[in-house]
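Fold this complex.
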Amino acid sequence: MAELNIVEKVIALEGVELLGNLTPEQLARIATIAHEIRFPPGKIVLEAGKPADALYVVVDGAAELSREGESLATAGQNDVLGAWALFEEDDPMPLTAKTLEDCRLLRIGRDDFYDLLADNTEITASVFSTLVKRFRKLVEQ
Amino acid sequence: MLAEPGVAFRLLAFQLLFPEPDHMMRLGRLKRQMFDIRPGEHLRTWAMFAYLLFVLFAYYILKPVSRAMFLNKFDIDKLPWLYVLIAVFGGVLAYFYSKLAAKTSLRSAVFWTMAISVASLLVMWWLIRMRLPWMIYVLNIWVGLFSIVLVSQGWLVASNLFNAREAKRLYALLGMGMVLGAAFGGEFTSRTAVLVGTENLLLASAFMVVIAYGAFRLAIFHSAGAVAHARAAEAGETDFSFRDMTRDIWRTRHLQVIVGMMFVTYLVDVMIEYQFQVTAKSSFHGDQLTAFFGQFYGLYLNGTEFVFQLLLTSAVVNWFGVGGTLQILPVAIGLTSVATIAAPGVTSAGAVRLTEASTRYTLNRTGMELLYMPLPKELRNRIKAFIDICVDRASRGIGGVLLAVLTGSWLKLDIKGIAMIVAALCVPWILLANRARKEYVATVRKRLEARRLDFESARVTVHDAATVRLLETAAVEAKPRQAAYALGLLADAPHYEIRPLLQKLALAPEPREVREKMYEIAADLRWDGVLERAIREIRAGGEAGDLPRAAVPYALSVAPDRARLAAELLDDANPQLVEGALEALRGDAELAEELITRDWLNRMVRAEDPRRRALAAAAIGVRGDRGTEALHGLLVDPDPLVAGAACRAAGAVKNRAYLFALVSALGNPRLRGDAVPALAAYGDGICGALADVLLAESVPRGVRRQIPRVLKNIPHQRSVNALLAAMGNQDLLIRAAVLKALNRLREANPQLDFENQFITGQILAEARHYFELHAALAPFRNGDGCVRACRLLARTIEERLRHTLERLFRLLGLRYPPREIYSAYLAVSRGRGEEASAAMEFLDNTLDRGLKRILIPLLDAPEHLGEHGRELFGVEDRTAEEAIRELIRSRDPWLVACAMAAAAELKLRSLAPEIAQAAHESEEEVSEVARAAEAKLAA
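Structure:
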């Protein structure tokens, strides 16, 4: 299977809630730091209790989300694993994500993401806006 | 061949008004100009049209009948006194009408006015049949009031049903309803008076009023709430009086101008009416006079008005704006009055009357109604009826008295003399119209500005003793941040002696924030009252990082042995103390040169601790770089703390040898914050070099995008020139940064020259680009056959449209008042009804005609963008394939990538050559997309 090009990466990233406020071109800049990786079935992508340093977007395949051995959900195409890992440097992951089949994922590393934010203030502003909306929603709940 | 003269005349008028090559295009434009009724507007528009038509129909039955009856029964010298009677009774009615309008809803006011009108007509019909001469006076007075009340009510209803932008499109059509009603009414009277008897026409008039009421109910069918809730005043203000209304006028210059305009208009109207009736009475008698009036008002006058309204009003208002439109009437009257002066008679007086009345009911009426529009709705509603009725009557009454004096036994002015007076009155009238234009724009501008938060008004000033006591208590007892703020305010308070308070604070273990402020204030005062405490803190070495930053600079500014103390601090192991010492030495070059030796610098530069290397850089910034090359190395230090300090130092010494390193630092997000002000500190001398970097394709984009940030901090014409040269850059981010920088420079330095002509060219280019993008978006707008790549393409184009609009407004901000243009941009992009409407009015009255012609259709009529693009720039509709082909050729990398992905998704194999070309010419990321698209199309 051919590597994803930048347009395909943007289409995959459109489903990420954290990036929901970004324009297609801003997503294209995120796409430049989103690296395609492949996992065989049974591979642990994120491990509960350990910190993560990247966010993953499922392009193809499926991954199981579990806690203490109990299966909670299955992540499929366009779902995001470790959505808030970009902002939680030392906090352990609450869930384990393990691939159920051959998986193709996009990985966005925290350091790359912060470098990109430093270089693109309008992306930072959009991400802040999304975070603020989410906090407000949580407070209202 | 055109057989019908009327049709030939209209087409001739089209040729004159719209001199463009394509006939279909011109017809479409005329149709839009006159009948630009948008979805959801039809019922209320046509119903209001019918309302005004039938009210005018009724009036133009009454007018010739009443005037002919009066002139046949009484001598002409009674006519001025009839005007006075109308004024007196009109004033009384205006007062009571305003009371009614303020205390009831607009809907009820209309109902009761019409019901009373119908009842009055029936009673007068019955009394006139009794052959009572005084009833002719009553009828004339009543008729004079009838049209004013009902027509002004109609416009009041319209102003509640339509916003300012809708009004600008639709009022011309409503005005045409009035013209048609008047024409039909006059013609109806001239043909039926002999058949049914003059007095019986009153019944026909009453019937028309009933139909008009039906039209009113239809007009408010979907907006009954707006009209039912609309009042001339708020609940608490309904009990307004004549004094309240005159106070409103006294306070609002805009209203004063409206009143002044109306006063002169009706004063002149009375005089022209008098001239016309005197000459008509001398030429016609009895039934001939009635027939003449019917024909004049029905055919000549309204025929002219109809042509004016159909062909001229919208175009003139669009072309000349409100002020220019309002000047046409006095200019036209002034010119035609010359004919009456030269050859007095029914023909010349009729010509003046024809010019005056036709222009007043068409161009002037539309201009005056638009003049009301920028006023707040409540004020508009409250005052409008009063002005329309009361000012109208008063000015006519004064006109009547003036006529009685002028034509009386003392002055004995004839028609020629009256014509001279009219011509003279036109001069102040023209000046007033010009003033109206300025007030109109000023009022619209104020409404826009009122939506901006004025941060400056939030400043606190300390004058009174109670506030001072409050702040003194806060400085001692409040939380640290509040206490420090209170100290700052007290330090700025005029005539306040702060030293005792500082002394008191120095004795107490105050928090760091308060001490920081204390040292800052003491340093500003050059007062050593808290030096002892500062020295104690410095000696303690800032335990636990508790030493205020201001302590060292303060101590070194007032200490008697400052040189020894500074030397001691420079060698201290605590970097904070060294930094404080350097800060204090910044203002004393001689001492800095003496204490910051080359040995000291070398020692610091070689230190492993990056904080000490950073201090070395800071020291070079303080003493200069004479005799040392250390700053070159520090600028490329791997530690951002050191490199940032080196950038600041380079900005302080302003040696061009560091320019390359500083420009390179712009590409590093961690150094950019220091590099930008450092470069700006060099001043206009480096603008040329920065311009070269900005234009150099070989320099990384990340660096070039930051150059405008530097230039905007150098307020010099060279910065403007450098930015203007880069305005057309292909990289949209660079272009946006350039425009932002220019906007900032314009706002802070309006005296700089931004090359208006060049900016206009750029605005037109962006406008064209907007229409082209819109045409490219059209095939994807409804989403037919669109999957993911197509949707992404559509979203990208929409985003490009938004950015193009922003650039357009930024460019406008370089030519017109930047704050107002920014407010207008916010209002237009949010698209909220009243706010957007006010913004459009502002633009309509601010932009030059050439720009307005392009931009107003772009902003105001989204559903007609395709047509406007075709007319203005020849941008044709596109199929999906044509649109994608052009986008692939656009040289906008991201748009090209999306277009190629969409082409692959839609299986547009005919685009393979363009995709292959793009794969060859583009950067790697776009080439990858091209190759993927080629593979997909080949599959």
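Chain A has a mean pLDDT of 87.
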